[in-house]
Amino acid sequence: MQFMLLFSRQGKLRLQKWYVPLSDTQKKKISREVIQTVLARKPKMCSFLEWRDLKIVYKRYASLYFCCAVEDQDNELITLEIIHRYVELLDKYFGSVCELDIIFNFEKAYYILDEFILGGEPQETSKKNVLKAIEQADMLQEALSYHPRSQIP
Amino acid sequence: MALKIVKGSIDRMFDKNLQDLVRGIRNHKEDEAKYISTCIDEIKQELKQDNIAVKANAVCKLTYLQMLGYDVSWAAFNIVEVMSSSKFTYKVSCSQLQLQSVDAVLITTIINSVSLPLVTQDLSSPNQYDTGVALTGLSCFVTPDLARDLASDIMTLMSHTKPYIRKKAVLIMYKVFLKYPESLRPAFPRLKEKLEDPDPGVQSAAVNVICELARRNPKNYLSLAPLFFKLMTSSTNNWVLIKIIKLFGALTPLEPRLGKKLIEPLTNLIHRALDLLYGMVSKKNLMEIVKKLMLHVDKAEGTTYRDELLTKIIDICSQSNYQYITNFEWYISILVELTRLEGTRHGHLIASQMLDVAIRVKAIRVFAVAQMATLLDNGHLLTGNMQRNGICEVLYAAAWICGEFSEHLEDPMQTLEAMLRPKVATLPGHIQAVYVQNAAKLFATVLRKQEGTTDSLAAQETSQLLIDRLPLFVQSANLEVQERASCILQLVKYIQKLQQKEVEVAEEVTALFAGELNPVAPKAQKKVPVPDGLDLDAWINEPPSESESEDEKPKAIFTKEEPKHTRPRHTEVDEKELARRREARKQEQANNPFYIKTSPSSQKVYQDQPGVEHIPVVQIDLSVPLKVPGMPMSDQYLKLEEERRQKERSERKKKEKKKKREKHGRGRRADSGPESEEDITPAHHVDIVTEEMPENALPSDDDDKDPNDPHKALDIDLDKYVYDVQGNLQDGSQVVVSVIFENKTDHFLKSMEFNVLDSLNSKLQRPEGSSPHDGLAVPFQLPPGVSNEARFVFSVQSIVMPQKLKGTLTFIVKTEDASTHEKLDFKLHFTCTSYLITTPCYSDAYAKLLESGELKSSSLKLEGVIMPFHHLLARICFHHHFSVVERIDSCASMYSRSIQGHHVCLLVKTSNQTVSIDAKCDEPSLLGNVLDEIKHTFSQC
């Protein structure tokens, strides 16, 4: 997988993860282009499209688009499955996830993604294991007293 | 100083944390850029503070801003600084910052000088989550330098005690390999080890990495194929399976043997997918799905897979009484398209679907008849495959449909013509029989049309056509065909006489075939409830005498009757009587030229298959006895007898019920089909006639098991087969051996491999690239009681000598809890006869051949032959592939040709139980061997 983007129906980027080295301007250009292309598509159209030399796989959940770019030899269906698995993980973690959860806890969303995908390849296919890792990391954070405001020396 | 600290903390009371920033940005939609620039200024201030918590908060905010697309590379140094803190949260935020970018120069310098020790320190941290975060962060900014420096550290982590770390390390290694390929060689053994890691997460990570690597350079990973094969058959993780299959996709072009190995597991997967399809269809998507499947059928390479697709297509379409079919014209076209498949074994299945649809869907008949007429017209295209259940079976259906519903035919004359072509005589017997019978139906239709017009000559011409063509069928070796053909021939001759007297006959001829046949459900008979007080087993009259004739038995006209020897019907027969009758029957059979005398077991196999009676059957030399130890023959007879009685009882039942049924009236049509599904209306009005069931049918459904299964009695512990060697006309150096394998065990047989020890002269043709000792996989599996045919091609150099080849069949017997490997030795006997091909020869050409004087002669005398002369000739024709050129009294000339073009001529004479055969052939040793074989045939009777 080359990159993953989450964006709203209005085209606002909510989360981006790049697995290939690109400059910021390149990233900006690519995300703008991909978002425009995907948003212009009608609901009944196919979830896969060819874009440059890559394949874009996207799916809309409520107001949020999840969008992945994979190489042309990769399987689109398993990519779709990866997206869905990620949504399931978010849903399990946040409890019926909504766009705002991701906006305000974007670092958590990132962390979940990192536990699930590493360097563009799925690292753990078991939902239970991913959630267990996240829970434990959360506990670790709490133990170390999380909020900077409460830390008046 | 103290003041400064207090001031700092008070300031920080007003600091924005991340949530505030996010909220703020959302509240400043109009002037977002301006708001953010103030925020960035604030962050810059925060980063200047000494308090690490403040810095961390600032970095958190930076990560968000970076995501929104703002440049934060100016803060790289601070970020790395925060990252070096020991607090977990801070590191998490930092790792999100995707520093890998064009600022590589800056970043790598910083990282190399500052963070490298920090990251490595993290890598060996006792807390697995610290290490985990470090690895995750690293995955986003691996540079060649970092990769080089960290490769060995990460490699060590691949053997970490915690699977959580192991799997991350494995995945990161992929990134490291990409940036620093030299690391691959030392790391590979360990990576390979991870394929068998006890933790499934690590395992799937390793599979992922290796699959990605292999995609770039597959041939280096061939050695891992067995390991992956094991994983594929054992893993239940679909994610992993998909990757492995992709990997095999890359490997198979390099190693053809792999493909063979993969067939079974892959077909299992495909079956799963096909089964899913079965449940997925609806009225809306059926056509689309079938279209896709048809594409696959076209592309499929193996016949087994293609046949599998074919059955699935038919299953899907015909499920729940054709519930999902809205357009039957489409379905008929699909069936017709399927007939174009080469080498399919499901001709029978397609045929029965054609019949079923044409009979039950009245609206489709016009279309179906037109399609079937085309099929008949192109019948020669389908006759290439004469295999049992081959595609020529559809001609059976086509002929019947065209005959039965001939009123819908546009040009019945043309179809009639097509059905009487001489080529038809090469079709299997049961199909010819249907052709003949339906030609008569068509004849009736044609007559009616022609008599309607004033052209009475046309009608007479039609009769003449039949009179010209039918004698071909009268000569058929198949009794059924012969019988029907001669009946109809006489009928037509009579009709012609009437026509010549200008009598209108069409009306009466049509009456022969009047009335419509309604479909009857297969279980209908059994569902008729037995009325109270009726004892079906009691005799109605006195038991009939022994000599009771068999003519009462109902004759199935359109289906092949299960062949069995007719036996008297009463139940008490003592052993002696049985023996006497058996003897008599044998006598009768011996004198019957149509009865193929073979050993009882091989005959059994052929009884079930129509159309192959003309193939000479030789019993194989089995080194293992085929009988069940400890079970005397009479017991088997007893069992057969019991079954026979049971069958007859049910037949008696049938007769009684028939009367009853007639009262209820026939043609009762049940409601058409299942309730149609709301939204979709069928393309045209479809009236699915359901099969007839008796009124108040019993609901019991336990009649799926067939108690009459003939194989049950022969519970023989081996699978057994019969073979036939045939020369290939096209290629003088090829011989095709068709072997019928029949599984007589109660177990599933699979992975059958057929191997023959080649001789110098005869070699089994194996696929390119395999060694001369490799076996050939038999392309099917055998469930209990099933038989199937496989063909093997041998190349032979010289055909003048007979030859025996030794071979082995290995197979796996799958029982419920175990499977064992078994082996069966056999010998294939290539007689010289099997190189001969029946070739007709005209007497003048024959005379020329003899005159040419190039033939060597030889002769043979047979003493004590008691059979009539024509039986003797039939036997030579049959067993040794000769044809009679001319016969005068007790003298006949015969001819045959070898696959390499040798002419073999015989002159057979008989007088006083002595038969003398003078033979001539251009190859003396071939002739000698053929004569020996003829002698052998007659010494056996």
Q: What's a concise summary of this model?
A:
Chain A has 153 residues and is of the alpha+beta class. Chain A is 45% helix and 24% strand. Chain A has 5 helices and 7 strands.
Question: Could you walk me through the main structural features you see in this protein, from its secondary elements to its overall organization?
Answer:
The complex is a heterodimer of chains A (153) and B (941). Chain A is α+β, with helices and mostly antiparallel strands and 153 residues long. Chain A has five helices and seven strands, in the order E-E-H-E-E-E-H-H-H-E-E-H. In chain A, helix 4 packs across helix 5. The C terminus of chain A is likely disordered. Chain B is an alpha+beta fold and 941 residues long. In chain B, strands 10, 11, 12, 13, 14 and 15 form a six-stranded antiparallel beta sheet that branches. A five-stranded antiparallel beta sheet of chain B has the order 1-9-8-4-6, with no helix packed on it. In chain B, strand 2 and strand 3 form a beta hairpin. The radius of gyration of chain B is 40 Å and the shape is elongated. The N and C termini of chain B lie far apart (125 Å). At the A-B interface, strand 2, helix 1, helix 4, strand 7 and helix 5 of A face helix 1, helix 2, helix 4, helix 6 and helix 8 of B.
